[in-house]
């Protein structure tokens, strides 16, 4: 039976990999809904190519341009926050949540609240609102299928009958472009250096997060929520080849791993076709052609983001929300050339210290704290761009 797909964040990197899979399996999938933020031309091209039913832009000012670009078609055009939520609530069989950042929270929740199966990439949402989001998943009978490669790997090897026999989850990390750089070298790193990931081809924000190792920190939080594991049972190993995508260690000493070439189409395909599997054209793993698979402990001295994220997870409540918002602001400021690479984590530390930790009792509180953290992080960025001692 053909699966109807909604693709939130269709114009991004995860979006492109998803489109490639859908285009290659027209008998299995029908793309019905696509969304973007402001990339009207790219969204309209996707909408026409896949003859979707609904196209939505988050920026309401882009709606007239989207309507113009799709004139002569029967595609319904939506815009603004409400338009995005309406698009996400469309009754498809699988919703791919691949909007960048916490901006994906409201639309992803709209899908969850209609009990959707959500192929989930938008880790920032789970970091910012983990327990509340999972409560919504449970209340509405929705399902989250992780497509972040590490979490998808764990999902594949986590035996449902033996969840209470798990000793720890082992997330692997490529180490990013600065794995072998000194702190002094990183101090002078440019945005071009930071987005030049040695293994994965991804959007700019997650590439910078990989360079700081904040991505792995966010993933520790994501894994703790998704798989209900305490922070000290989520281990990280740097594995530069990115072949072993993650592992689950059981109490009997067995370690189960999922392997594959580093290609996002593989975990996305797993979630799209779940519980079946689908064919992909992703390059096959040639283990015989590999000299070695190596693993090393992350250097938390050079990469303080990982310890910061772990501390936020242990503190709980609003701490991960603040960390995520501050990081989003700081990464955007770094990409815009406003702050230096090492200042990304400094902004996050200062914002967390400034705001402290408070209770998160509702999604409205998450939005308010996210907002306050963004304003505080912006102030930190401003101080740094104006050279004021922090
Ligand atoms: P990209 O920056 O490539 O794409 C982001 C997508 O989200 C685009 O469609 C963009 O639209 C849309 N978007 C951005 N801002 C908003 C907003 N305010 N409101 C609505 N839509 C918005 O990101 P990636 O594809 O790299 O990453 C997407 C998510 O997936 C992130 O959470 C990331 O951490 C996660 N992820 C990504 C992986 C990857 O390989 N790229 C791997 C694992 C997880 P527009 O084009 O108009 O800006």
What's the CATH H-level superfamily name of the largest domain?
A: RNA polymerase sigma factor, region 2, helix turn helix motif
Overall shape: it is globular
- Any idea what the radius of gyration is? 20 Å
Secondary-structure-derived class: alpha/beta
Beginning-to-end CA distance, first to last residue:
59 Å
CATH architecture descriptor text of the largest domain: Orthogonal Bundle
Name every ligand kind in the structure: NADPH dihydro-nicotinamide-adenine-dinucleotide phosphate
CATH topology of the largest domain: Rna Polymerase Sigma Factor, Chain: A
**Poorly predicted ranges (pLDDT <50, ≥5 residues)?**
none
Question: Helicity range of the residues?
Answer: 40-55%
Largest sheet: 7 strands, parallel
Q: Give the mean pLDDT.
A: 96
Strand order of the largest sheet: 4-3-2-1-5-6-7
How much of the polypeptide forms β-strand, as a percent range? 15-25%
One letter per element, helices H and strands E, the order comes to EHEHEHEHEHEHEHEHHHHEEEHHHHH
| Tally of helical runs | 16
Number of domains: 2
How many strand elements?
Answer: 11
Overall CATH class of the largest domain: Mainly Alpha
Description:
Helix 1 (13-24) links the parallel strand 1 and strand 2 (29-36). A seven-stranded parallel β-sheet has the order 4-3-2-1-5-6-7, sandwiched between helices. A four-stranded mixed β-sheet has the order 9-8-10-11, covered by helices on one side. Helix 4 (80-88) runs parallel beside helix 5. Helix content is 45%, strand content 15%. The chain is globular and about 55 Å long. The protein has helices at 13-24, 40-49, 63-69, 80-88, 105-112, 123-139, 149-157, 183-187, 191-195, 204-212, 214-226, 265-273, 305-315, 319-335, 343-355, 363-385, and strands at residues 3-8, 29-36, 54-57, 76-79, 94-97, 117-120, 143-146, 166-173, 234-238, 244-250, 255-259. It folds into two domains: 3-146, Rossmann fold (3-Layer(aba) Sandwich), CATH 3.40.50; 152-261 and 294-385, Orthogonal Bundle (Rna Polymerase Sigma Factor, Chain: A), CATH 1.10.1740.10. The chain has 390 residues and is α/β, with parallel strands linked by helices. NADPH dihydro-nicotinamide-adenine-dinucleotide phosphate binds at residues 9-15, 36-39, 58, 98-100, 103, 121-124, 148, 200, 202-203, 205-206, 264.
């Amino acid at each position: 039976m053909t699966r109807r797909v909604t693709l939130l964040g269709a114009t991004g990197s995860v979006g492109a990999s998803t489109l490639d899979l859908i285009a290659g399996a027209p008998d299995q999938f029908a793309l019905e809904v696509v969304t973007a933020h402001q990339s009207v031309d790219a969204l309209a091209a996707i909408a026409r190519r896949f003859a979707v039913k609904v196209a939505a832009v988050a920026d309401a000012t882009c709606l007239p341009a989207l309507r113009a670009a799709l004139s002569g078609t029967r595609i319904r055009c939506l815009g603004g926050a409400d338009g995005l939520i309406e698009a996400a609530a469309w009754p498809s069989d699988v919703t791919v949540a691949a909007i960048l950042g916490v901006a994906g929270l409201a639309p992803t929740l709209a899908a969850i609240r209609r009990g959707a199966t959500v192929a989930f990439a938008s880790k920032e949402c789970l970091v910012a609102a983990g327990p509340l989001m999972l409560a919504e998943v449970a209340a509405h009978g929705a399902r989250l299928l992780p497509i972040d490669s590490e979490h998808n790997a764990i999902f594949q090897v986590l035996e449902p009958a033996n969840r209470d026999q798990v000793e720890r989850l082992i997330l692997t990390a490529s180490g990013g472009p600065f794995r072998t750089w000194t702190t002094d070298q990183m101090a002078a790193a440019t945005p071009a250096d930071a987005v030049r990931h040695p293994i994965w081809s991804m959007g700019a924000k997650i590439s910078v997060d990989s360079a700081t190792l904040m991505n792995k920190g966010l993933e520790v939080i994501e894994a703790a929520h998704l798989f209900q594991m305490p922070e000290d049972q989520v281990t990280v190993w740097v594995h530069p080849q990115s072949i072993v995508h993650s592992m689950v260690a059981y109490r009997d000493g067995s370690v189960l791993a999922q392997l594959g070439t580093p290609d996002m189409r593989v975990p996305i395909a797993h979630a799209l076709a779940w519980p079946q599997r689908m064919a992909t054209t992703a390059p096959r793993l040639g283990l015989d052609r590999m000299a070695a698979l190596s693993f090393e402990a992350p250097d938390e001295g050079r990469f303080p983001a990982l310890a910061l994220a772990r501390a936020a997870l242990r503190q709980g409540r609003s701490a991960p929300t603040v960390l995520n918002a501050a990081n989003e602001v700081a990464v955007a400021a770094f990409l815009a050339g406003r702050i230096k690479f090492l200042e990304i984590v400094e902004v996050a530390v200062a914002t967390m210290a400034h705001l402290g930790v408070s209770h998160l009792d509702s999604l409205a509180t998450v939005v308010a704290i996210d907002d306050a953290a963004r304003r505080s992080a912006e102030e930190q960025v401003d101080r740094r761009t104006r050279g004021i001692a922090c």
